[in-house]
Amino acid sequence: MTTPVESPVSPQPLIEIDVWTDVVCPWCYIGEGRLFEAIEAEGLSDKVRLRARSFELDPTSPAEVTQTSTEMLAAKMGVSNDVARAKEGEVAALAEELGRDFAIDRPFANTRAIHRVMQAINAAHPGDDGATGTAFFLDLQRGYFSGTLNPFEEANILTAASAHGLSEDAAREALTSQESDAVVEQEIQAARQMGAGGVPFFVFNGKFAAPGALPTDTFRKALRQVAANSEGTANTEGSHA
After folding, report:
1. Which domains does the chain have, with CATH numbers?
2. Is the pLDDT of residue 231 over 80?
């Protein structure tokens, strides 16, 4: 099994990508994997900055784990658990194409607290434009879908936050922080104002939106176009300097 591509964190990016995403969103996991694959294929790993933005797949879910992802999907679709498990198997096959693990029957609960902690990490690292918070988020998401980490266990959130530069006390406080919650809500509303009805929702250089888990080739074409536009703008500005 190949190792997932690391989140691009170029200090002087040609392309900035904001992605509205949720830890428990399987299509976010697939979409981000395809995006990373496209970035690497286009040789842009050192020219892209990826920034995770908060969005809740199911804000009505209880804070405590009361069901599995299969049970949630079955209830949402009005089908049996076996049918829902088969649907999850289809997504697992797509993950396998990307060299990623995909565990079925994952725990499922509300993700708001995780987003609050991500925003607290961002606030603690104001100079990196969300890179550390994004790395925290992706670590939890990859661990969740690979079946190696339960992001709804407080100890796991605190450990991950500590690994990304936020003290345990600060992370514990962030779990219920109104200040962090306000930032989460702002990002959710920003996505909706741009027309996002779900996630993943990608925005390139603050201008070009790409909703959904697009195929890798489509991401590659988008990256080429955005890179060409960015280089053209830079050249135009340089000619007037």
Report:
1. 15-239 (3.40.30.10)
2. no
